[in-house]
Amino acid sequence: MQHLATVDSVSVRLETVLTRLSAHFRGMPESKLLGRLPDGRSRAAAGHELAGRVALAAQGVEDRGAPVPPTWRRLPFEGPFVVGDQIGVTGHDLLVACASAVADDASGAAGEVWAPGDGRRSERLGIEDLLGKVLAAAEELAGRL
Predict the structure, then answer these.
(1) Helices then strands (H, E): number in the chain?
(2) With a threshold of 0.90, does the pTM exceed it?
(3) Domain residues for 96?
(4) Cβ–Cβ < 8 Å for 115, 57
(5) Which of 135, 136, 110 is nearest to 124 (CA)?
(6) Could you tell me which residues are beta bridge partners of residue 80?
(7) Helix, strand or coil for residue 37?
(8) pLDDT tens across 86-123, in order?
(9) How many domains does the chain have?
(10) ∠ Cα 138 141 145 (to 5°)
(11) Which residues contact 134 (CB under 8 A, 6 or more apart)?
(12) Is 106 exposed, middle or buried (0-12, 13-18, 19+ CB in 10 A)?
C-alpha cells in the first residue's frame, strides 16, 4: 500500500501544478504567450511541449497492456491561445488513466506502463516513475514562467 500512497501523492501534486499552469496559460495575453524563454522557445511552444509530453504519458498508461510500444500520437499545435486548454485536458486524461490503471491492479501498483524514450525507443516504467518525470517537467516549466 505504500506504493499506492506514493502514486496518489504524486498524482495530487501533478494535478495541482497542471491546473495552475493551465489557468496561467489561459490568462496570458498574446504578447506574453509569444514571448521568449531563456532557451529561445516561446512560452506557448514550451507549454505545448509539456501538453504533448502529458498526452504521450496518458497514451502509455492507456496502452500499458500492449505487448509492444504504441504508435505514439503527437499533439497538434493549434496556436498559442489553446495551450492552456491542452495542458488542462491532457492532464485530466493522464490522471484518469492512472487512477484506472491503479484500480485495475489488485496490488495497487498498476504495473509498468509504456513511455516514449529518447529518439525512437520506448521503455517500460513504473507508473510512479512516469508520473514523477511528468511532474518534474511541469514544475520546471512553472518555475520558468
Answers:
(1) 5, 2
(2) yes
(3) 2-144
(4) yes
(5) 110
(6) none
(7) coil
(8) 999 999 999 999 999 888 875 544 579 999 887 678 99
(9) 1
(10) 140
(11) 14, 53, 54, 57, 94
(12) exposed
